[in-house]
Write a structure and sequence with these properties.
With about 230 residues, this protein is mainly alpha-helical. The chain folds into two domains: about 1-50, no CATH class; about 55-215, AhpD-like, CATH 1.20.1290.10. About 75% of the residues lie in helices and about 0% in strands. The chain has helices at about 5-20, 25-30, 35-50, 55-65, 75-85, 90-125, 135-140, 145-155, 165-175, 185-195, 200-210, 215-225. α4 packs across α6 (about 90-125) and α9 runs antiparallel to α10.
């Protein structure tokens, strides 16, 4: 075996240890950019390897990130859902995460409503809404929808699924991820996490876990490149 082949074998082994999988796009990158692949494995694996969250919680966060409507990465979702179940996550845990994924649309809608309320207060002869929350304004203007929205995100969680702190960690990850970054919602969930006792290390790890999803664009590029040869 040549020195280069030995080096590539070592990189593949390290990647599989850090990430727990190997896919065809990894073969392309191992051939074309082996040191990038090695650096990526170390970078992507660091938060999961060094942070305080359990392997179960890490995999559940990955489930949420890959299932998110802003990402919809089925291959990753399948990998992490299977791993979550293997390391102790329950079916109730999985569906609690998927329940939270549905809430991303609500958070962004409220962000839009906040802008609408601000603009209306500036251009029309209506009461000043600057002291109101977007949800307050929604409740005033469309009470039925506000009630349905509240029910969707407050009812239906399993008593055997995620704890309030774990749900908060998933929401922090969803709103911190670059695929659907929502600073206002992120700040609210971080504050809630502090109130219910999440440590800064737990919150930091939850935020970090979403960063490397951008490699899925690299993976797509590698796959397309292979079709050109």
């Amino acid at each position: 075996m040549s020195e280069q082949d030995l080096m590539r074998d070592q990189i593949r082994n390290e990647f599989e240890r850090e990430r727990g999988y190997w896919r065809p796009w990894n073969d392309t990158l191992l051939r074309e950019r082996p040191h990038f692949l090695q650096n990526y494995a170390r970078y992507a694996g660091h938060p999961a390897r060094t942070g305080p969250l359990s392997e179960r919680m890490i995999e559940l966060i990955y489930v949420g990130l890959d299932a998110s409507s802003s990402h919809l990465f089925e291959a990753g979702l399948r990998v992490h859902m299977e791993k979550a179940l293997k390391v102790g996550a329950s079916r109730q845990d999985i569906f609690d995460v998927l329940h939270l994924v549905a809430g991303q649309g609500i958070e962004c809608t409220l962000k839009g409503i906040e802008i609408l309320a601000e603009e209306i207060s500036q251009t029309q002869d209506v009461k000043n809404v600057s002291g109101e929350s977007a949800f307050d304004w929604l409740a005033w203007n469309d009470p039925s929808y506000a009630e349905l929205t509240h029910s969707l995100m407050s009812d239906g969680f399993s008593t055997e699924g995620l704890s309030p702190a774990e749900r908060c960690l998933v929401q922090i990850a969803l709103h911190a991820c670059f695929t659907a970054f929502n600073p206002k919602a992120l700040r609210e969930h971080i504050r809630k996490g502090i109130e219910i006792g999440l440590s800064s290390a737990q919150t930091l790890q939850s935020i970090q876990l979403g960063a490397h999803l951008s490699v899925h664009g690299t993976a797509l590029g590698a796959q397309v490149f292979e079709t050109l040869n």
